Each structure stands twice: as structure tokens, then as C-alpha cells.
Amino acid sequence: MGVLQTRAQKFHNWTFHHQDPAWPQMCYLLRFTEVWLWVDEDRPLVIERVNLDRFLWTMPYKIKRTVSSGNPKPLDRLVELVETYEATTDLLKVAQPGHPQWMQ
Fold first, then answer.
1. What is the C-alpha to C-alpha distance for residues 78 and 102, in angstroms, rounded to an integer?
2. What predicted TM-score, i.e. pTM, was given to this entire model?
3. Please, where are the H alpha helices in 1-104?
4. pLDDT tens digits for 33-52?
5. 29 close to 55: Cβ distance less than 8 angstroms
6. Domain ranges of the chain
């Protein structure tokens, strides 16, 4: 397999892990994409679009549905929506009766 194929394969093998923080994952994906798609003038726009697509494509359906409704065009906005979703679901879990931290 050639260098370009190896770089593309790393990008295509990447998946979102909802248990890990969103920003480090986006940075890791950006690095794979930059190494794979190095183009001069249009690099930021192309890389941002490709990363946005990949990040959304590999998310669990519940997160994707919620985040997509916020129209996440810039990567910063996408990651912000994912982090908000994850923080909200964590808080809702704690608010359930029977959870060790409920009503403390």
C-alpha cells in the first residue's frame, strides 16, 4: 500500500467515541486529514468540510440527530454541540432516582 493510501486509510478508519472528549478527537482527525489532503490555498476549507462530514458520520444516531439540528458548520460549533449534548446526558443520568449522586 502506498503512502497516500495509508494516510487515507487512517482517515477512513477513524471513528467517534462518545465516551471520550470531543476536542481531542477532532484534533486527532484533523491531523489525519491534513496529512492526507495537503493542498495549498483551499486546504482549510476542504479539510474542515471533510472533517465535519467524518465526525458526524461516525457518531451514534442520538448524538448525530441532536447535533445536526444545530446546523454545525464551523468545526468549533460542532464540537461545542457535542460537548453540550454529552454534558446534558451526564447530568440527566445523575438526576435519576437511584443514581449514587442523586439529591446530594
1. 30
2. 0.53
3. 3-13, 22-36, 43-57, 61-68, 75-94
4. 887 776 556 556 677 778 77
5. yes
6. 19-94
